[in-house]
Amino acid sequence: MATEDTVQLSEAHAPQQASIDAFNSILESVKEGLIKLRRDHDKHEPEYFRAVQGVSDAELASISTSDLDSVRVATSAYGLHLFAKVKLPAANNAYIHVRVFGSAKDGTDGSSLDEREYTLHSIHTEEVIKDDGDRVYRAIFGKDDALEWFDT
């Protein structure tokens, strides 16, 4: 399993065409996953999506490849790990962090772009436990929040 300790994640940078194409190939999964994630969290902990509470599902999922803000990439023996910061156009200073996994298509070694396939690994959600034991939850990040390795 690839972890933050076993792979070297690149510095955040503007997306290049390969990252744009990879993101575009899983865009519908991101939109569906984002709406499902919000609905699931709204049942138990609505704070995750409090920053976009006045935004409809349709507006929340109105993202496109042009909203891809920055990416970080790592390669492992398993494939390509793409972390993306995506602007939510329906809200001010609202971004999601998405993790995408790219692997070789069956029967190929994945060495060329058209020999790779991509899947949505996860949309980042964060739970922080403060010193006083209070918990802070979020799935919506700001422009200045660093795009870091995440598993969730």
From TrEMBL:
This is Uncharacterized protein. It comes from the Eukaryota.
